């Protein structure tokens, strides 16, 4: 649902480097960043943060549409934003040979975000999926951006999106499966890894035929209960949080997907730090197919 206040209403804007800054007296971004501790009352501070977070979510949606020319598609079909949610897709996403699917983690993040805290406290390039979308656009890929944490309207569950799992299943069957893409690529962060392996298990035949590469970023798919298949091991790699240099091989149990370092020790930074390696991996897998 649309926030009642925008980031501008709250006195913030993003500067030319994509950093959230308070608006100065001259109407331009100042050097003053967001301050969580506005009082000694933690609940008041958190409430203020959530208001800003909602405004940031709306702003990212706006950027996806205006700067990246993505289009909203309803979940479920025929719903409105009053009783349903939406995903974002690139124009003619269903006609491209290669389709990139982006799946964020759990929590407060919504479509287009990897980590809301990074968007607020660091910058757009680290906290959003925008760099991935731009790289995919440059390669001519179709793009689908899931919105798997948007599950309620008020107290009411959204039909076909009452949980992240239900959302992913619906988007796969309704929007991904009917596309012409012979090659599907997936980037799945954190809990998005669980959604991915569950889909791979549930849609096994179609998934193994068309999904050519999966880049997990600090995925927690080990909690899914799904046994990792030989196929998943062949097409996947998991960039995990580590102090080791990017792409350093990490200790991987025999039953799991190959782990390499994402080049950063913070969980929420993994997706942005390994982006070049992810697209190199995709190129390699597409060349194999």
TrEMBL record:
Protein name per its UniProtKB record = (African queen) hypothetical protein
Q: Where is the Arb2 domain?
A: 6-152, 155-246
Q: Which residues cross the membrane?
A: none
Lineage in the entry? Eukaryota, Metazoa, Ecdysozoa, Arthropoda, Hexapoda
The organism named in the record is Danaus chrysippus (African queen)
Q: What's any one GO cellular component for it? A: nucleus
PANTHER family membership:
FAM172 FAMILY PROTEIN HOMOLOG CG10038
Q: Please cite one Gene Ontology biological process associated with this protein.
A: regulatory ncRNA-mediated heterochromatin formation
Q: Which GO terms describe its molecular function?
A: siRNA binding
* Pfam families per record: Arb2
Organism's domain of life?
Answer: Eukaryota
